[in-house]
Every structure is written in structure tokens, then in C-alpha cells.
Hints:
about 40% strand, 5-stranded antiparallel sheet, mainly beta, 4-stranded antiparallel sheet, single chain
Amino acid sequence: MTFTVTACGPDRGLKVSPEGNPSPSLFAPNTAAAGEPNEPFSLDEVRKAIESASGIAVTGSATETAKVVADCKDCLKFSSPFLSGKQKFQLVTVANPKQRDETIAGAVISEHNGEPRLELIATGNQLKVSPGRNGTLVVQEAMFADGDDACCPSGWSVQVYRLHDGRFEPGQRFTRLNGET
Length: 181
């Protein structure tokens, strides 16, 4: 008697790629089409937009992020810009002021009537924000269980945002904590 089992095996769960080695199925390669990260707005202009909006974005709210940006001039850095159609979005990350190598927020800026407009703020632990395919934004966040050290989260959460009717709307969230999805 021959017995064959297919599609069984260990649960491979959610695959989260290291920052330096993104999965080609999730992330589009960087292209020159989006232009320079600091165009059309400088970090000072982006900082002022976040401060004046008090962290209230077109999509989402993060008043704590606005306070960090106002108090810590070295915590705001450009990341890779991205396009949705012909519209450019600048992407900035906000570092933890007490541990500068840890990203605590990502902000998306667009141009609206010649001025910078805060579109989206995503916050979290050890955040990674990356442009995805077709104008999406992928936000990856470390998930900690009780007793985890800061170096070693028990899992990850991945959220994809898609631009729809002029707003970034959250898509499905994938979370894996302690080996469970």
C-alpha cells in the first residue's frame, strides 16, 4: 500500500526578510523614477509639516512622533521615496531619541498645493518602512512577548498600506508571535 501526503509539513508561517535582503515578492526594486529622497521638500520643511500637523496625518495620528521630531533634530532621516502613478511620496523615518539606531515611526509626505502634506504616520517597535509594489507602503514592526530582550523580539507584524481615493488605507495585517500566525 502506497501512501503519499502532499502539502503537509512544518508551518512555514510568515516570512519576514531582513532589511538588507528584501523579498522580491514584496518589494519593488528602487528606481530612479521616484527621484531624490530630499525632493521636493527638505528635512526642515518635512519637520515643520509634521510639527504643524501635530502628528495628525491624513491617515492616522501620532502626536508623540510630532513631539520627538520637534525635540530631536537628528532623529528625522529620509528613506526611499516612492511613486503611486505619477504622484511622488517622500518617506522619512523617526529614530528613538534614546537609541538612535531604532526606528519608532515612519511618515509619508506628499505635495499638496505646493506645500508638504503629512499623509500617514506609522508607529511601532523597531519599525521598518519600505515602498512596496504599485504605490504601496509596507510597515514591519517587532512584536515583543513578556520577558523578551530588546534585541530579540518574539515575532513580527507586517501591514501593507495602499493609496485609495487619496488616502492610505491599511490592508491586511500579518502577525507572527512565538511561532504562531
